[in-house]
Amino acid sequence: MSTAAVTDKRPSTLRAASLPKWTPWAIAAGSIALGLGISAAAGLDSKIQWALIAALLFILGTYGVAARVEGRRQAKDRVATSLVWVAFLLAVIPLVSLIWVTVARGVKVLDIHFLTHSMGIVADTEPGGGIYHAIIGSLEQVGLATLIGAPIGVLTAIYLVEYGRGKLAKAVTFFVDVMTGIPSIVAGLFILSLMLIFEMQPFGFAGSLALAILMMPVVVRSTEEMLKLVPNELREASLALGVPKWRTILKVVLPTSIGGITTGIMLAVARIAGETAPVLLLVFGNPFINNNPFEGAQASLPLYIYQQFANSAGSGAAYDRAWAASLTLIAFVMILNLVARGIARWKAPKTGR
Amino acid sequence: MAKRIDVSGLTAYYGSHKAIEDISMTVEPRSVTAFIGPSGCGKSTFLRTLNRMHEVTPGGRVEGKVLLDDEDLYGTGVDPVSVRREVGMVFQRPNPFPTMSIFDNVAAGLRLNGNYRKSELSDIVEKSLRGANLWNEVKDRLNKPGSGLSGGQQQRLCIARAIAVEPKVLLMDEPCSALDPISTLAIEDLIGELKERFTIVIVTHNMQQAARVSDRTAFFNLAAVGQPGRLIEIDDTERIFSNPSVQATEDYISGRFG
Amino acid sequence: MDISTTTDASPPTPPQHKPAERKRDARGATRPGDRIFLGLSRGSGILLLVIMAAIAGFLTYRAAIAIGKDHGNFLTTFEWNTNVQPPTFGIAVLAFGTIVSSVVAMALAVPVAVAIALFITHYAPRRMSGPVAYVIDLLAAVPSIVYGLWGALVLVPHMNGLFGWLNDFFGWTGLFSWEEGAPRSMLTVGILLAIMILPIITNVSREVFRQVPQMHEEAALALGATRWEVIRMSVLPFGRSGVISASMLGLGRALGETMAVATVLSPSFDIQASLLNPGGGTFAQNIASKFSEANEFGRDALIASGLILFVITLVVNGAARLIIARRAEYSGANA
Question: What is the ipTM of this complex?
């Protein structure tokens, strides 16, 4: 049946004038060209400027053309689409740049020597040295923080989901939320105030305490979410068999959600591993290897990056080390993330979704 | 204003899976046509091809023709958005917009399409709510959220929302399956009233319901699990339930399978 | 017809938020195992409360020591001299800088983040949305010090062009006038903070948008809504509280961000009316920068400023929770 025959009879209600599929590309090409032209004519040299002009032209052009041909509703729809795309592209630029620069500059000095040596007596402005001491410090501080923060977090979540009723649970829920918002430097200041009272010098474990505080609410939240996903029927089935509640939690609820809980803990570890501020206040930094987290200043990877950047008066060697340490830190965090996600996918409850 | 639907050679896919195959039928205007058949036979999929909702599902695609008074819904240049304005739909679970009030829910479709004055808008909302037999129950709380209503009321709210934009056809996908018997009865009464104005197609699992509300009944079946669903026969409801021409229909209706 | 009173089908609330009513009873614990387990888990919850109280208590205690000896007005003094006698310090500049940088960051980040979240859930080609979501997820984990390093060494040099341009066209507003100096100003800080919090806001918003029940979107589609109208009618209302809490999460990070500000800003203890002129400071940045040279009294003074930051984040969080609670009540869908 030919469409012409239909449209001859009476105006169609289903058919609307619509722009061909290549229209967005054409408008994009046109606005980029125009943007470049305007920038060149006005003598603007910043890439950011011509990109902004082109983006603006693209959106206005889309609206204008679509409104004329397809009507206002379609035009709005198209503008929304182009805004979403433009936002995506704009945001991708800095994020890609961040990763690119870190990798490109980081590999310069990143080698076995760098990973296995401390700074020792190498001056901050000189080449050489490494991050071994910082890796040790980071591992110890983060490890201790996890030993403290993870169990408390998981238990609190169990309390909230499995037992929590009444005022106490409400208060805990509220303050977990509040705690999530504590800036890391405030957690550092809290431990610092204790250290001032007891007249203590900086040491690794003090940093761990602050990191544990930062970790707890994150673990509580993620564990809570995971426990809530366990269907109530499972619990009831177990309870109905006469299994005591605590064994139901240990044998039914936790195993069902263990994948998600592990993922949550690992993501929390990844988060605190990159914290600088509390470590700066409490652990202070140290160019030498200090294996004892309970006495004396230690280094840590994020702190090392900051100190290489800040104390080196623009020395290229120090910047290189900072980038290399950044790359190491990112790699560590990313591996944790990837493994955590792997676990989550592998252990995910097999529900149709 | 109700329109006739003419389907010919319609096949629908989910990705590479063929869900229904080669369906042809005619749905008369101002009548109720019921789709019955065992689970998975593709009756809901078929219903969703009638207002191009099938293609919203990832991987969903359709071959064949659906003519709405001679105009092909799948013709080139046809805007699915306009199709859905002409062919309204009511879903299995009542789905009022949770953040909108009862009034706004009914007015939602109207507001999309232009500029109604406030008085016009409230006239249409009242008319639609009356049309859905809901007005008396909600007239004092039009500004309350629609999600506060009972399930049956929510479903009638959804019907009011659908008929407010004056579609030509109303598709109902098991509209009563989430409701209790009394609410179901209310919806069935409503369907009887609505067919004066609309072409109605209803998918139902409940054969008594099909017998009660529909003028014509289409029976769908599938040869085996994984095979595409097919239209076995369509006829006047009375005949389908008393003297169907295909054995499978009789077996299904008399409860021998399904 | 009195259907309303007899029908009792549950309203269509999404199941993931409130998994039914929990009929479990804490007092039902009588076995030793139950009692120990309940004790442990409740103890952890209480410990969390104790920690929060301790943070507030000890910070206040040390802050009181410092403020008691402050020769200036703690709230209004434009100075931070804690190593001299008599010590004079105040948080006016820090409060101003913290708020300005966070506002800039939010203004830039929230719309873009919501757009990217929509891009992933509703616009991107299906093959693209998965990887994009994944990468942005990972970017949320990049440590702030790395953002700081990148900001100082890569972003700052690239800001010269934008600053010049803003100064040329919008300099007359005063807000965008640029006198001299490297572009290490509040605007740069705001932009860097925006880039930092973008992944977090995007991720949370994306999750919320993804959870919009299919049936709500289909309701809009079946009325003949365009894609944008579906988003406006179904997705955004459903996701609003989620976006707000995501933004508050981002705001919390922006307010308390230390290293990224410390590396990018060139601080001074005054208030700049223009976003482009270097100067000013934030609470967190000031603590990090002044810490190493501070004596014990100086550290108490920094703790005092930290207390204010703590209070601000508490207020922001509380406000976010209130907003969310109110929305949830109305929508009936987002507990």
Answer: 0.87
